[in-house]
Amino acid sequence: MRSFCTCINDHFWREMPQLQEGQQVSIFHGFTMFWDTDTYVMDIFIFRSIVAAAAIFYIYKYTENSTRCYLSLLLFSLSLIVIFVDIYLYRQCDTEKDCHTGNTGMLKAFNPGSERLIYEKPNILQPPRTNVMIVTPWLAPVVWTGTFNRDILNQQFKDKNSTIGLSVFALGGYWKLLKAFLETSDKFFMMGHKVIYYVYTDQPDKVECTTIHNDRECKVYKTSSYDSKARVFMKRMEILHLDIKSKKIDVQYLVCADVDIVFHDQVGVEILSDLVATLHPGYYKTDRSYFTYERRTSSQAYIPSNEGDFYYQANFFAGKVQEIYQMTKSCDEAIKIDDSNGIIAVYHDESHFNKYLLHHKPTKILSPEYIWSWTIRRTSDIQTIRVIHGEKNI
Ligand SMILES: CC(=O)N[C@H]1[C@@H](OP(=O)(O)OP(=O)(O)OC[C@H]2O[C@@H](n3ccc(=O)[nH]c3=O)[C@H](O)[C@@H]2O)O[C@H](CO)[C@H](O)[C@@H]1O
Ligand SMILES: [Mn+2]
C-alpha cells in the first residue's frame, strides 16, 4: 500500500512539468493521468494483492496453529522486503528527466528500453490557440506559445542525433554585441542538444568565443572587412552557402541570426523544420500593401503588390542545412544580378529572402515571439517573448 501511495504522490507531482507550454493546470490533472496511463504500476499492484490474498487464505485454511504463526511471520517479512525494494527502485531516477516523467526503476525493470513520456492527450476538437493562425494555407505550422509540447519534440529530436549550428556575423564594431548574444544563447538556445556556434568576424583576436557547456563548440571564422553595412548584410548569403558546401559548416540544422539579438526565453527544437522563417513583428497584423517588399521591377527581389503571404524578417531564420544552402545560394545569385544592373534591393538580403520564400514556401513559420522588438506595442497574442532584436549598445 505504501508503494501504491508513493506512486500516486510521485505521479501527481511529476506530471506537472509535462504540460504544454502556456497550458492551464487543473487539480485533477495528475490523478487522471495516473489512472489513464500507469497501467504497469496498477498491474503489478493488483497481481501482488491477489498473490498475498491467496497466501493468507491458504495459511489460515490449511495449516496448523504452530506453523500458521511462522508462515504468517514469513509472509509479513516478505511483504515488507517487497515494499522496500519497490520504494527503493521507484525512487531511483537515472536522470532528472526520468524523475520528472516517472520513468523510474520499477517501471524500467518491467518495461525495459521504454522512455516514458506522460502528457495530456491532445483534443482534436479543441485547437490549442484560437486567436491566432496556427497553420498556413500550405499546411506549415505557425509556432506560438501553447501550440507545442517541447518534451515530445525533444524526445523525437533526440532519436535523430542531430547537431544544430547557430551562425552569427560580427564585423566592425558589432563584435561588442557577441558577448550578450553568446551568453544568452548558452542560457536559452536548444538546451540539451548538440550545438555549434559559428562566429564570423573580421577581428578574431577581439572575439571571445566561449560557452559554458561541455558539449558545445564555438568556431570562429575570419572574414574580410566590408566598406558598407549593406555589403555586410548581403555578403552573409554568399559566405553561408560557400561554407556549407565546403563543410566549414557541418551540421544537420542551421539557425542564422543577427548579432544584435538576445535570447530572452527558451528557444528549442520547436523552431526546426526544412525551411523556417520568422514573422516581422511590425507587419504580422497588416495588410500586404504595407509590406516593405522590393517594388521595383528592375530588381530580382521584385514582388507585385497583389502577391506575398507574410513579411519575414531576415535576422532569424533556420532550416535543414541543404535547404539553407539552396536559399542562401539563390539569394546570393539574385543579389549579384542586381549588382551587375547597378541596383540594391530596398531591404538588401531581406528583400531577396522574402522573394525566395514567396516561391519556396517555408515549412514552418515562427510567430513574432521569436523576434520581438521593444519598440513595438505588445498585444495579448504575444504570450512569451523569446528573442529580442535591436539590442545595439555599441
Ligand atoms: C534599415 C536596414 O538597413 N535594415 C537591414 C538590417 O536591419 P538591422 O537594423 O537589423 O541591421 P543590423 O545593423 O543588425 O545588421 C545586420 C547584421 O549584420 C551584421 N553586421 C552588420 C553591420 C556591421 O557593420 N557589422 C555586422 O556584423 C550583424 O550580424 C548585424 O546584426 O538587416 C536586415 C537583415 O538582418 C535587413 O537586411 C535590413 O534591410
Ligand atoms: Mn539586426
UniProtKB/TrEMBL annotation:
Keyword Magnesium found: no
Protein topology in the membrane: Single-pass type II membrane protein
Database matches in InterPro entries: Glyco_trans_6, Nucleotide-diphossugar_trans
Cofactor note: Binds 1 Mn(2+) ion per subunit.
Transmembrane parts of this sequence: 40-60, 69-90
GO terms under biological process: carbohydrate metabolic process
GO cellular component terms given for this protein: Golgi apparatus; membrane; vesicle
Binding site for UDP-N-acetyl-alpha-D-galactosamine: Y174, D258, V259, D260
Required co-factors: Mn(2+)
Binding site for an alpha-L-fucosyl-(1->2)-beta-D-galactosyl derivative: H280, T292, E350
Entry's localization field: Membrane
Protein name, entry field: Uncharacterized protein
